[in-house]
Amino acid sequence: MKEKILELLKDQTYTRRKIDELAEYFHMTSTENYVQFIKLLNSMEDEGLIIRSQYHDYYLINQLQFYKGVINLNKKGFAFVKVDEEREFYINESNMKDAYNKDVVLIEKIRSHGSKEEARVVRVLERGQMRYVGEVKRGKRDFYVAVDDSKFNKQIFVDSAHMHGAVVGHKVVVEIKTFKPQIKGNIIKIIGHRNDPGVDILSIVHAHDVDIEFPEDVYKQIDDISDEIDPSDIKNRVDLRNELIVTIDGDDAKDLDDAISLKKLANGNYQLGVHIADVSYYVTEGSPLDKEAVKRGTSIYLVDRVIPMLPHKLSNGICSLNPHTDRYTISCIMEVDKNGEVINHDIIPSVIHSSYRMTYHNVNAILDGDMPLQRQYEEVVPLFFLMQELADLFMQKKAERGAINFDVNEAKVLVDDKGKPTDVVLRTRGASDKIIEEFMLKANETVAQHFKWMDLPFIYRVHEQPKLKKLQQFATIVKPLGYTIKGSLEHIYPNELNHIIEASIGTEEHTVISTLLLRCMQKARYDRQCLGHFGLADEYYTHFTSPIRRYPDLLVHRCIRTFLFEHQLDETAHFEEVIPYLAEQSSFRERESIDIEREVDDMKMAEYMEGHIGEEFEGVISSITQFGFFVELPNTIDGLVHMTELTDDFYHYDDKNIMLVGERTGKTFKLSDKVKVKVIGASKKERTVDFEIVGMKPRLKKSKIVHLNDKKVKTNRKKKGKINKPRSFARKKKR
Questions:
Q1: d(Cα 15, Cα 260) in Å, to the nearest integer?
Q2: Same fold across 65-126 and 131-196
Q3: Over 222-267, what HEC string results?
């Protein structure tokens, strides 16, 4: 009935829109049916699907300039509501009504400003967020929670019955129970005292509704999982335990989910084996472990801890490819020719026995000629040089097809045992890091292509072409720097964008250009359709190599097990049904984890800079706005030089050339300019850093006395030839 009503109202020529007329049209005229019909229309109004005009006629909301969307609030109070992919409305703070960030709202268009449209909130259809993290404080009568989220500037009052042991100074999770007449809540979790080590990070984690501990039924399930493999399944696998297989990971990594084997074949080709922990053997579909993994979606890597997708018993134990231990894996064995092309492959269930647990640091040193390490790992030294040889082929092949080489610096925040930041350093990527990256990419491509041609349900990693508007913005920004995108922006190829990256290598603007290009890309996501990967210039791509820490990889393994190993083609309909939801959930959890990791890094960087106020640094201008510009230091910390700190002149924003121009001096600040700055402020709470330009002279000079009609008048040098008239000369304004 709901669909029929919407279909009827969609017809603009249909005029009989009052409730009695609609009831008659749908033959809902008996008392019982009429009451049910009224309830249905009311519920559709509550959902924001339909609306009544002042004459009590029913319409679809957009037929009367009403729209439905999610509020995206700015810290300054105004907001935007995006109603579709291409259209959004500005909401002034005075037109917010009782809506808050993330609420689903019904809005009414009130005016247009050129291409920009403004609306007001008519009503809140659905609350977007009911739980917040904040600090317990004492009010005049009741306790209240001061929320951490800068987009929610209201106090949440909590009476004594709903404190549940929380005291002043505790960081807590509070759930809102009522919004009117005042916002009241119930404390559902105490995170810890605000000054306790680690509570600052946990507050961010809980603000994103991430659980630290696993549910009880998960722990019960893993009690039944052995610490050693069940030998009864070896007969169903290819035994690779006598092959030379190694893992290469970071020094402190404990979830080792990928291992490598490599050898030259008699025909001169390479045989590359990428062996991935068989997590799907232990995490069965629909089990408590699986449900929790779906909920989490991914492991989260923070400065001082990891919040794993799977419990440590699996992630660091039976599923981790620890050295000198038998482990179950799914292996992608590829034959690669001298041109770097995979000419043959097999995807098989296997059992391996890793020979060496290597680190990136040690393999890099071996490849750089470290003789003591070469002697220590004499058996596998030839393997590492063969790996480099093959990886170079893969990189050359990738460059030829036009994959974009995003050369962006990444920072690592170092903290002490109390969580205090001690330094911020750049992550270094050596030869072995790139080797493993290339081998994982090749395995992902091969598995994706295999399933694409089988035409079976599958989950792909997709990265679509950048939006035209963002490409136009990027082209506008880089043009003043001397870079032009060739060809049509509407049908851009990755190699055109990569040419700009390559051309900027060795220049001062290289880092800025790489970062700007990365920002204009669409976010990679998961999808049931094979839509290709723009950044990699690859037609087929998935995530197969990290099932310990990413749910889509685990799902890929489950598809492999079902369709390739067990040949259960009758499960096709089931996977067709579940994959779209799992792809959307995994994409959402990935975005949340990235936000958490970024917020923690920003907080710790700001906390680190709190100890460096007054110190001077050199950096480059990374972005320019109407209110100032951001300066990025060599360790990637960035801070704002606000327009008010530019005291030697009045500066105007030139949006065409993306720079600030001095009104009197003509002095400019452009992207990639090197500047020397002093830290004048930093806020751990706001996660911000403020700079000023070192050596900048003040705008206002000491006033001189000049004579005007025998009267002494003060003037300054702000504008040559202009003086301040005495008040007796000034025309009185009408009040």
A1: 70
A2: yes
A3: HHCCCCCCCHHHHHHCEECCCCCCEEEECCCCCCCCEEEEEEECCC
pTM over 0.90: no
- Phi and psi at 692, nearest 5°, equal -130, 155
CA separation for the pair 600, 620 (Å, rounded): 23
What is the dihedral angle through the alpha carbons of 510, 512, 517, 523, rounded to the nearest 10 degrees? 130
Residue with tokens 């063969």: 386
Q: Which tokens hold the place of 56?
A: 């009590």
pLDDT tens-digit series, residues 134-177: 999 998 888 999 999 989 989 999 999 999 999 999 999 999 99
Token readout for 77 is 């109070």
Residues 635, 428: Cα–Cα separation, whole Å: 12
Nearest to 314 by CA among 291, 285, 293: 293
Let me know: does 325 contact 353? Beta carbons within 8 Å: yes
* Beta-bridge mates of residue 239: 351
* Interatomic CA distance for residues 648 and 414, integer angstroms: 37
Q: Are 214 and 325 in contact (CB under 8 A)?
A: no
Domain 65-126 in CATH 2.40.50.140: yes
For tokens 């369709």, the residue is 563
Residues 324, 319: Cα–Cα separation, whole Å: 14
Entry field: residues in the chain: 735
Give the span between the Cα atoms of 101 and 698, in whole angstroms.
40
DSSP 444-483: HHHHHHHHHHHT----EEEBPPPPHHHHHHHHHHHGGGT-
Specify whether the CB–CB gap between 356 and 247 falls below 8 A: yes
Determine contact, residues 637/605, Cβ cutoff 8 Å.
Answer: yes
Among 502, 522, 523, 526, which Cα is nearest to 513's? 502
The residue extents of the domains of the chain are: 2-61, 65-126, 131-196, 217-463+534-600, 468-521, 611-693, 700-735
pLDDT, tens digit, for every residue of 565-622? 999 999 999 999 999 999 999 999 999 999 999 999 999 999 999 999 999 999 999 9
Distance CA 198, CA 303 (A): 10
| Domain formed by 131-196, architecture | Beta Barrel (2.40)
Rounded Cα–Cα distance for residues 578 and 582 (Å): 6
d(CA 199, CA 189): 13
**CA-CA distance, 162 to 173, in Å (whole number)?**
12
Answer for the pair 604, 415: CB distance below 8 angstroms, yes or no: yes
Question: Are 108 and 140 within 8 A, CB to CB?
Answer: no
Q: Measured at the alpha carbon of residue 293, what is the angle toward residues 291 and 295, in degrees to the nearest 5?
A: 70
Could you tell me which CATH class the domain 611-693 is placed in? mainly beta
Residue 323 reports pLDDT greater than 90 = yes
Q: For residues 501 and 478, give the distance between their C-alpha atoms in angstroms, rounded to a whole number.
A: 11
Give the right CATH number for 2-61 from 1.10.10.10, 3.40.80.10, 3.40.50.920, 3.90.950.10: 1.10.10.10
What pLDDT does 700 receive? 52
**DSSP string covering 543-606:** --S-TTTBHHHHHHHHHIIIIIIS--GGGHHHHHHHHHHHHHHHHHHHHHHHHHHHHHHHHHHH
56-67 pLDDT, tens digit each: 888 888 778 888
**Spatial distance between the Cα atoms of 680 and 368, rounded to a whole number of angstroms:** 43
Choose the weakest-confidence range: 200-214, 327-341, 421-435, 494-508: 494-508
**Based on the number of CB atoms within 10 Å of its own CB, is 619 exposed (0-12), middle (13-18) or buried (19 or more)?**
buried
Neighbours of 15 (CB within 10 A): 9
